[in-house]
Amino acid sequence: MTQPSREVLQKLTPVLTKRWLSPDAWKIDTYERLDGYLAVKKALEVHPDDLIQLIKDSGLRGRGGAGFPTGLKWGFIPQGDGKPHYLVINADEGEPGTCKDLPLMTWDPHSLVEGAIIAAYAIRAARAYIYIRGEAVHAARRLRNAVKEAYAKGYLGENILGSGFDLDLVVHSGAGAYICGEETALLDSLEGFRGQPRLRPPFPAVAGLYASPTVVNNVGTIASVPYIVLGGADWWKSMGTEKSSGPMIYSLSGRVANPGQYECGLGITLRELLELAGGMKPGHTLKFWTPGGSSTPLLTAEHIDTPMDFEGVAAAGSILGTTAMQIFSDQDCPVYATWRWLEFYHHESCGKCTPCREGNYWMVRTYRRILSGEGTYQDLDTLQDTADNIFGRAFCGLGDGAATPVVSTLKWFRQDYLDYIEGRTAPRLSAKTLVGAH
Amino acid sequence: MTDTTVDFSPAAAPLAAELLEPALEIIARYPAGRERSALLPLLHLVQTREGFVSPAGVAFCADVLGINKAQVGAVATFYTMYKRKPTGDYLVSVCTNTLCNVMGGQEVYDELVEHLGVGHDETTADGKITLEHAECLAACDYAPVVTVNYDYAIDQATPAGAVELAEQLRRDERPVLPRGARICTLKEMQHQLAGFNDEREGAVADGRPGAPTLRGVTLAQEHGIAVAGFNTDTPITTTKPARDEGAKAVPDGKVQRPAPEKTGPLAKAVTAVKAAVGAVAEKTHRAGDVKDPESRTAEQRNVDAKTPGPGSQQPTPQPENAAEAAGVAKNQPAGDGKPAGDTERPASAPADTTKNSGQGETK
Question: Which residues of chain A neighbour B225 with C-beta distances below 8 Å?
Answer without folding.
Answer: 9-10, 12, 14
